[in-house]
Request: fold
Amino acid sequence: MIVTFPHMGKVYIPAKGLFDDLGVPVSVPNPISKKTLEIGTKVSPEMACLPLKINMGNYIQSLDSGADTIILTGSCGPCRFGYYGIIEKEILQDLGYKVDVVILDAPGKDPGIFFQRIKKISGNSSWRNILKAFLSALKVVEETEVLFDIFLYKRPRELAKGETDRLQDYFEKEVLNCHGSGEILYFVDECRKKASLIKEKPDISPLRVGLVGEIYTLIEPFVNLNVEKKLGDLGVEVHRGITIADWVKTHLSPDWKYKSERKKRLKKGGKYLNLCIGGHAWETIASTVHFADMGLDGVIHILPFGCMPEIVAESIIPSISRDYKIPTMTLTVDELTGEAGYRTRLEAFVDLLEQKKGIKYGQA
Amino acid sequence: MGRLDLFLGVDVGSVSVNLVLLDNNCNVVEKIYLRTQGRPIEVLSEGLERIHQLMPANSVVAGAGVTGSGRELAGAMINADIVKNEITAHGIAVLQYIPEAQTILEIGGQDSKLILLRNGVVSDFSMNTVCAAGTGSFLDRQAARLGIPIQDFGAMALKSNASVRIAGRCAVFAESDMIHKQQMGCRPEDIIKGLCEALVRNYLNNVGKGKEILPVVVFQGGVAANQGIKQSFEEALGQQVVVPEHYDVMGAVGAGILARKEVQKTGLTKFCGFDATSVEFSAKSFSCNDCANMCEVAELSNNGEITARWGDRCGKWSSSLKKKPDISFMA
Reply:
């Protein structure tokens, strides 16, 4: 058995650590590229949302290089993502791939199935080792998140342009050579020390922008055309509305403290939306309000073309923008998104925020 | 009499290349509007040569700014002091001449924008995302198909007294609908008026969705020359629409104003554009095969020396040049 999984931002880092610790051979999919998208688009229904197409590309590239078992998390969510696993399995079977698809839904009514599936993908590990491996993976999730927050903080402030990018590239490339969560954690720590040494421009107070929207689109730089880096290069400090750690803690771990905090945050947006309407629309609204409360300069909302929950959120966001007097912008992406127009919009939005801030401090 | 400082603004768009010269009070001294015809480098060189000849004897270019979809290329060619996106450039230009403006409707060759201004700054904007049905290229094409010069298109619409409803959501459907209406025997002026209304409806539903359009409303971009569209906007919005004097080159004007501001900060211009007319420029693009992204990298060389590159995701090509091009937004 060689397992593989779909890419979603930096999920591959803890996932690799986890399978290494369990002693299960793992094939990390190739980094998402145009080729991945091309393969995925060819085999997916045209109207399917973008993440599905990229998942398919990931699988086929991994299967072709030897993997035979796919692991993905379902969420039984009330958006299309809930059916991804099933549809993807069907497509792969139609294409003639002999593949085992293991869907990890959060333990619900029948926890037995969940544990059965965990056991299936854990090789011969004992329950004690499985638990240990999962806890270490959780730690990796949290620690890498901290590292990436440092990158986001440093990029608009760095004295030598490109230094943060170079360190991030180095990290992303070298982390694949680590074996197991222990080595990964050690390497993350090393990079964190390096990151803290990046020299900053003196007396700088960059614009602060929050990113909200559909989770996959926000987390996967290939899909959002590397919005975090683009904004950072424009001198913006980026705040993320949703991270892998949020998602893991919500769906896969019993972190009750986090869950109650999450509820509080969701309540903040209650005036605009007070129930789950599928996907992450509720989080999008709540995070927009949260960012406005934090006094950020603006909020950018990103969704994949045709994502129903986020379309609802898109129509609510202008009310928040009006009430809190915070500029917002919605960007829709899919495989046809042109980079030039996207850049023009980001650039103009940042100009707008700068002008507005200038007025606030009487410099205009 | 001393030296006369002029500021050059360049807007390299999909359909036209515009150049303006502004004096120190931001008045337009000269303007040139050329069709891009898919050859931005040659057309820009030609424009520069022509504007050079138009310059008064004692004048110099004290600053240069570029905007438009070809801004990176143009910025590298003339060594511009500032490279800005079209939205900011249009906003700045309008605020200079019509400070009380709150809404800008801008329809260009291939994109249309709505820019909202509040308290003297850009407060919100949107651009067309779905389709080019509402833009100048589409009108151009339809005018050609009807055999009417585009210059007369607007005036003809004004002659109509019973417009025909055209489906304007998609350029292809609009065209087949127009053919259908022609074959029904509708008069050309009524069809043209219907087309203007469809374009305006499409713009307001698509670009203008959910945006508060407050007076003063300014209409600019190449399509603003079209009286029929202006009239349809006024009917749809129920208010007057102002077309500024230099409606067709407002992006370039904005770039010029920004260049003036930038030079006030830096002190000296980097502009070397008129040399550009004697230099042999060539651009080419290649596909980098070093990873699966296969980015299309474009490079600009003058007299055989590569001066700028862009388009690579990883930055390997754009950062490998010894002399860094001064483009503020390469990433």
In short: The CA atoms of residues 239 and 264 of chain B lie 39 Å apart. Residues 4-92+250-276 of chain B form a domain with the Nucleotidyltransferase; domain 5 fold (CATH 3.30.420.40). The first helix of chain B runs from residue 40 to 54. Chain B is about 35% helix and 25% strand.
